[in-house]
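Q: How do we represent a protein-ligand complex in a form that can be generated token by token?
A: Start from the inputs.
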Amino acid sequence: MGAQGSFNPFEMARVQFDKVADLLDLDSGTRELLRSPLREYHFSIPVRMSDGNTKVFQGFRIQHNDARGPCKGGIRFHPQETVDTVRALSMWMTWKTAVVDIPLGGAKGGVICDPHSLTPQEQEAICRGYVDQIAKNIGPAIDIPAPDIMTNAQHMIWMLDEYEKILGSRFPGMITGKPVGLGGSLGRTQATGYGLVYTIREALRQLDIRPAGTRASVQGFGNVAQYAIELLERIGGKVVCVSCWDQQDSASYSFRKADGVVLDELRSITDRFGGIEKDKAKELGYEVLSGAAWLEQDVDILIPAALENQITGENVAKISTQVKVIAEGANGPTTPEADKVIHERGIFLVPDFLANAGGVTCSYFEQVQCNMNYFWEMDEVLGKLDLKMTSAFIAVSDLARKKKLYMRDAAYIIAIDRVAMACHQRGWV
Ligand code: GLU
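Then emit the structure tokens for the protein with glutamic acid bound:
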């Protein structure tokens, strides 16, 4: 991620932005403002390790834009995290909150570390150390972190606890993705995967395809992928291939079952690093294929739900002619080169910052519930999530149809226009 070859996600985010800035004929001041983050914090987090030595971890928080409301976005723990990855992700968060029209801006955080090789105490120390460095620059009305790759509700509550100790009061709206019962929202864990499926359902509707009987192939088996598979199956779809990273082999594999993978079965053979155990999968009748195989399946729907830079100029030609929808669960999984081909082939693309906006939308609901100190039932959360995702999808697909635009460009036009308008109205540009 971020460090693969010459791939630079921030450059990619800028290429995507520039294209739409041209289409919108944005003035140079607004263009310059939105091409870069407003603020960046880079800091060191010293941690006393369990062996008694001190290790210093690098942390980042990058606030891209807060014209529409406080900055919002997750914190990732990853050994290959780079500043440019975090910059790109912060920019995508701005477009994400804008496209679903929630009153928030965009930010992202990261720590260069590998949680797989850290004890829970060391992870807790990183979380607390992260907040110690950035406490003055985050908060419910400034910038609200959330979980992302390799961070979860436990990390969030450690961070909240540290923040509240520093400030000497309770601020449940300072962070989202908290445990249910401690200011968290029901449905937050499911929200990104479910939200993704709401957009797939709408894409299929536009194409006049019934979800029942559709086949999908998924890259990733983390939080987003698992809940997407769960809901996709519930609406009648079948996931026939799942690809997953194997920590021990430092390689990925695809697991195929022609009559559909069984989610609970795969969950039960997932190792403590989140990888699927190959031998056990074989015993259960799965074909174990190369990590790249997920992209080459004869399916109706492809769901990249792992990392950025996965569908590229090199492998895009391998996408089957049967594929009708690509729904991007991950942030930035498709490079501009591959994007061009997908557009030319007429595949219906649900772009990342629309497709995976369910997480941040539910985070917003979590904040609303914290402000009221009154928490909704699951059905209420999911009903509101479906409404928000579906109306955002329809706004984007209506524009795409009317102006004969690629879905990614249509989503960008709506998002950038909203953010640019907020900047103008505030008198920034
Ligand atoms: N990390 C998630 C994302 O990339 C959620 C962010 C949030 O809830 O603030 O959208």
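The chain has a mean pLDDT of 96. Residues 72-74, 96, 146, 148, 176, 331, 356, 359-360, 363 surround glutamic acid (CB under 6 Å).
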